[in-house]
Amino acid sequence: MVVGAVPRLLPGVVGFAEEICITLQAWSFGAATRLRFQTLTGNDPGMEFGPHLLLAVLEGAVGAAVLALTALGLSLVFGVMRVVNVAHGEFYMLGAVVAWFVASVIAGHPALGFVAALVIAPLAAAVVAMVADRLVLKPVAYDPEATIVGTIGILYILQQAALMWFGPEARPVEPPFNHRIALPWYDWAAGEWFYPWGLSTTSYKLFVIAAAVVILLAFWAVLTRSRIGLIMRATQLDRETALAFGIPVGRVYSLVFGLGAGLAALAAVLIVPIQQAHYLMGGDPLLLSFIVVIIGGLGSVRGTVVAALLIGMSDGIISVFLSPTLSKILATLLVALVLVFRPQGLFGTRAA
Amino acid sequence: MIRDLGLHLALIAVLFVLGLTLPDYHQGNMARILVLATYAVGYNVLFGYTGLLSLGHAMFFAAGMYGLGLVMQHGGWSPVPAFIAGLVSAALLSVIVAVLALRTVGVAFMIVTLMFSQSAFLTILYFGTWTRGDEGFVIPQAARQVAGLDLTDPVTRYMAALALFSVALLLVLWLVRRQEGAVLIGIRENEERTRMLGYNVLSHKILAVVMSGTLSGAAGAGYALLFGYVGATFASVQYSIFPLLWVLLGGAGTTIGPLVGAVFMFYLIDYSSGLTNAYMLIAGVVLVLLTLFARAGIMGEVRKRWAPWLP
Amino acid sequence: MTQSFKTNRRTLIKGAAAGGVLAAAPLVSRFAQAQSSAPIRIGFQQHVTGIGAAYGRWYGRTTDAAVKKINDEGGINGRMIEIIAEDDGTDPKRGAEVVGKFASQHDCDVAFGTLFSHVVYGSAPAAGELKLPYFVVSEGHHVASGALNRYTMQPGITDVKSQVQAMAPYVAENLGKKVTMIFPDFAFGHDHRDYFTAAIEAQGGEVLEHIAIPPTETSFTKYFPKIPRETEVVYHVMVGPAVLTFVKEMGEFFGPSKPAIFGFIDSLEAVDMTSPGLEFLDGTYFWEGMPRYAQADQTEYDKAFRAAVGVDDNGASVSDPRDVSTYAHMFGCWETLHIIKAGMEASDYAGPQDRAKLIEAIEAMTELAESFEHPQGPKLFNGKTHQVFGVQYISKVENGKLVKVHTTSIEDTQYPDEADYTTMAF
């Protein structure tokens, strides 16, 4: 009876192996720009290797930009307060939902609503987060285990509230501007530039990358150059000493929790014209942010950005060679193994 | 020791009597809860006693579930060898995970287990030809018979679930009353000190992961066998969060806590969903209240206030 | 039997509390009379929360409208319908628990309503064991494949296998023979992959590439380069909250030079066709279970159905034009409830003891004419496989609206039986 199952299992196993072989071939010929490799069905793939890779990198950069902002918020909360904020993804969701509300209330050019959302959504999320900090986290004295359960509770509450007032649909926000930009590519064999089939991005996606870079730089400047950044770093390093030096740790914690939520909400406002607001959208950003924070190492803006790039791009780039789901599996295992063999993360101090 | 054993046997006896007397609906619920509580008991070994927070236990539950389900569905195995196949799959997976993931600690351990589990979930989807992916498959009623016992009969099923739970419960009681259990608790309280005292911390942690994973796998195999369904949902992140919640609610590091937590959570959702569609809101508020007022979980508070001898 | 015993016992207790055991006797007899007019209790397994919530809400509205209509017309065998809705959280474990609750807590006569196929798979064993007739509105191939049991039926909506294969002749003839398929990498997508690939090959076409998208993916552009360039038709189907992103990014990827595009409306169910970024869809084709926009040749039944549920000519809620319905699926709830009514009337259904008779009565059904009860179109029920077959629609997007261009025959949707539930014991 068991033997009977083997023939049925075989094609899949072979397919798996073949895909791996193709990967190896593709890597070994990686230098040839116009590489053509045979897929399982024996057909030519759609796009040349080089343009495909560029597209995967561009798309990965958009994801990474948003992820870096979200993860930075989590990193801040985790680093300064030592709180594993399971509700972080819900603040992200809150940002997207508020952005939808703001954009749908403000008439006129979509840019008006978008700019208003950029201001209002992070503030709204920050206020909710600070209230949650006062009501839940502070009373349990930021105990690590208790805050996990408490923030799971906050997660449920925010999710259900969004379902009740926002509804179960995915709702779009119109981008302030959006142009399809076809990208050129250099053909070494023919010695000329040309526009490969399908290689394009949009002006808004480029804007998201740029905006994230600006915000990250600004944040880095605040953290390293300003008084409030100094206070936060001091609190992160040593809570007791900070208290002794008269730093109002309670207020710093509230502020940090609000700031973390605000960053997540800001990231969501940037992404919501590309993706949509949905009450369950917080799950993935939460998990990915955690991964980024740990891989990047605590308290390191640089590490967070590098890790976000790694996480944001890896599955897209691997999927140039493999089927999408297999790429996700390998990318996930790859990152897990990075952590296994470098538990302190790529940069920064050892976690926990 | 006698008091502990007496208490646990009495609990099992009470559950036995409940199985014969509860109304249909609650008998059905309790059968399911006992299987899920077995999962929580397994989770508690690692989290409650050893202090290692895993966010990936769904992979062990799923290993048991698919280990049993796939050989029954595609190999035509009978339930007993299939159940053993489920246990073996979960045990193997937990050995691999233990060796790799235990190189990390704290939040990194959480993330590594989470990512392994996520890979397991995606792997189930990737091999959809046999697993039928998210949709899963049904194990027919006719196949769920063991030695003339019909596991789809409500009373038989309840008793099978109770047997599974009892074995897990007594196993954990036995463990925590042995030196190994004391070492695990030592690791939880102060890993450095335990190492200084000359105990091999790593091998004890591996023991905890394997025991925890295998018990979780037993629960997964039990669920598939008793309720006739195998599906990828059980490998998803939320099914890794559930045992954490049950254990925290019931009381981490108490033998009975996982059952109490699973019962509490089930009936909280079941009852409040009858009152309002916003039952998640109620669940959220209750979690927050527990955080604020009963941080050690239900049995943890009982132990703290009235019965310090509780294991 | 158990039900009436339980209720009698409860009434006895109530009576005893009210004023002594003696007073209980008249109460019992009054109750026995009332039994025939007590409502028929239908458990509604609804996706209120979880990933299926957008569908669940419209399934709820359609169900309420159907129940109102049936009750206004005198109910079933003179008894009113009472809907007991329970949220399954779009989760197979909770689904099974809810079925148990319907059977032994709410004393429901039957259960119905589930859409997501993993919930159907998770719940069907419980329904079979508790001997509770379970009517799913899921469009999965689970029922007809023979994997479930005699108590599970799908009489109100066609399954994915017949929908998919019925598309192939039109696609091959009008859009092209070289197809690339993009679908979610789980069972529903795999059904599309397997059945459409076979059907298009039977039409002399071929599928150049299968692109399976991982579930929970939120960004899609990176996968589109896998589309072979000689593709004549892109066949897409996607489900979940990210569908709009998917369709939008596909438009941005192709830009001005796109192949013919054929999609399942699942890719845009509950999404406004006029959402920003969807302009490129003009000129593309969709499968529709039931045309979302009122058509030029709209039947009076479709008109009446829209009015009853509260849906305007654009397929959106009459109270909020931005609240777009799941029009291609939700008719299934309406039609299923009417099948339950017809089955109960044909079998003189009086209570849970008649459940087997009810199922046999439905198994005996065959042709279902297009009517106010079946506004989606004419259907043919297959009692052996517990699955209904019916016409399918293909629409083209013109100026932001879906305009029907083709109606399949029922024959296009049929395939050889894969099961015979009627030979199974109850």
Molecular structure report:
The complex is a heterotrimer of chains A (352), B (311) and C (426). Chain A is mainly alpha-helical. Chain A has one domain. Chain A has 12 helices and 4 strands, in the order αααααββββααααααα. In chain A, the strands form 2 sheets. A two-stranded antiparallel ribbon of chain A has the order 1-4. Chain A has a two-stranded antiparallel sheet with strand order 2-3. In chain B, 76% of the residues lie in helices and 3% in strands. Chain B has 311 residues and is mostly helical. Chain B has a two-stranded antiparallel ribbon. A two-stranded antiparallel sheet of chain B has the order 2-3. In chain B, a hairpin with a 2-residue loop joins strand 2 (145-146) and strand 3. Chain B has helices at 2-21, 24-49, 58-75, 79-101, 106-126, 128-131, 154-177, 179-189, 191-196, 201-227, 237-250, 257-275, 279-293, 298-305, and strands spanning 137-138, 145-146, 149-150, 229-230. With 426 residues, chain C is of the alpha/beta class. Chain C has 2 domains: 39-158 and 330-390, Response regulator (Rossmann fold), CATH 3.40.50.2300; 160-288 and 391-413, 3-Layer(aba) Sandwich (Rossmann fold), CATH 3.40.50. Chain C is 38% helix and 19% strand. In chain C, the strands form 4 sheets. A 7-stranded mixed sheet of chain C has the order 7-6-8-9-10-16-17, covered by helices on one side. Chain C has a 5-stranded parallel sheet with strand order 2-1-3-4-5, sandwiched between helices. In chain C, strands 13-14-15 form a 3-stranded antiparallel sheet, with no helix packed on it. In chain C, helix 3 (53-72) runs parallel beside helix 10 (327-346), helix 4 (92-104) runs parallel beside helix 5 (117-130) and helix 6 packs across helix 7 (187-202). At the A-B interface, helix 1, helix 5, helix 10 and helix 12 of A face helix 3, helix 5, helix 11 and helix 13 of B.
